[in-house]
Amino acid sequence: MVYAPVRPDRSLPPVRVNLYSDTQTRPSPGMKDAMMRAEVGDEQSGDDPTINALCDRMADLTGKPAAMFLPTGTMCNQISLLVHCLPGDEILAHENSHIVANEGGAPGALAGAVILGLRGERGMFDAATMKAALREKRRNAPPQTLVAVEQTTNAGGGSVWPLGLLNDVLIAAHAEGMKTHMDGARLMNAVVASGVTARDMSEHADSVWLDFTKGLGAPLGAVLCGSEAFIDQAWRWKQRLGGSMRQAGICAAACLYALDHNVDRLAEDHANAKLLARGLKQVPGLAVEEVATNLVFFDTRRTRLTADELAGRARQAGVMVSTVGPYRVRACTHLDVDAASVDLAVQAIGAAVR
Ligand SMILES: *Cc1c(COP(=O)(O)O)cnc(C)c1O
User: Fold this and answer.
1) Choice from 75, 78, 100, 154 to test ligand 1 binding pocket (greatest atom count within 8 A of CB)
2) Structural domains in the chain?
3) Considering only CA atoms, which residue is closest to atom 8 of ligand 1?
4) Residue 18 buriedness (CB in 10 A; 0-12 / 13-18 / 19+)
5) What is the pLDDT of residues 199-254, one digit of tens each?
């Protein structure tokens, strides 16, 4: 089995507009300056003041008693599953969620848990769907111990769970004796798009995390939040998995900078995503999905191009997009994409289709 190459193909023209992912942002000069000036210590011993400041800030933002810095969002998800579940447990999550499709089978490989994929529009599901998936509590049924949601939904089109729907699901899970986990990779996108606070969105989640490497523009880092007891157990897994760091405050400084400078501006990414969607809707044959935040998905079927063919042609014109299915393309806006780049992308994709 040969996977896609991990080095860029040097025969391709330079990238002019990178809509491949909001993870492709580069740290800005201001962010690098904050990193240079960071006070650091030994993170593993709790002695890094910048890490501690970031964790305090995130605990406050999400309304949780404790928080922990981790290198990636995937590690936040997997450590949460390891703490919440025993081997053989069943997790209820949307069938298209990141833990199902994009973490290398880690729930099975690490926690030993299985996932029951729930269906629902745009990456979300309601309490009735969740309850319909509950098994009779018998010795031969897997214990269903966790419900996981994504805010915003990634493969679900960047949708924002409305607070009522979210609370219904999480409260119903608690009523069934289950734990609740929120993958908040793009939590601040949800906050900026809806005006609901991160604290309100996280109220009924036993664990919640935010990624700093998506639209927030930091080079690495995510913060996982929960109760003191949860974070205490999470530390054991962080240690076991080799996620405990040393002078990581240099990275936490970038995350603090992102909280101060890059949150409100997510509104620009959302406006640019809408602009992009409006432009793409004018391209004959493209079916553009509803845009809620910074992710724009569209279907190429009626152009008779596959997603890969369209992405390949756009790339030749210097525009990078990603493909998430045979005919489904994703374009992400982020802090290195402005309205002029959006125009360029629309033109390049339009030309690719013609
Ligand atoms: C990106 C992403 C993750 C994983 O985060 P990494 O920092 O890339 O490991 C998890 N969940 C969702 C919804 C994501 O979009």
Assistant:
1) 154
2) 17-26+265-353 (3.90.1150.10), 38-261 (3.40.640.10)
3) 73
4) buried
5) 999 999 999 999 999 999 999 999 999 999 999 999 999 999 999 999 999 999 99
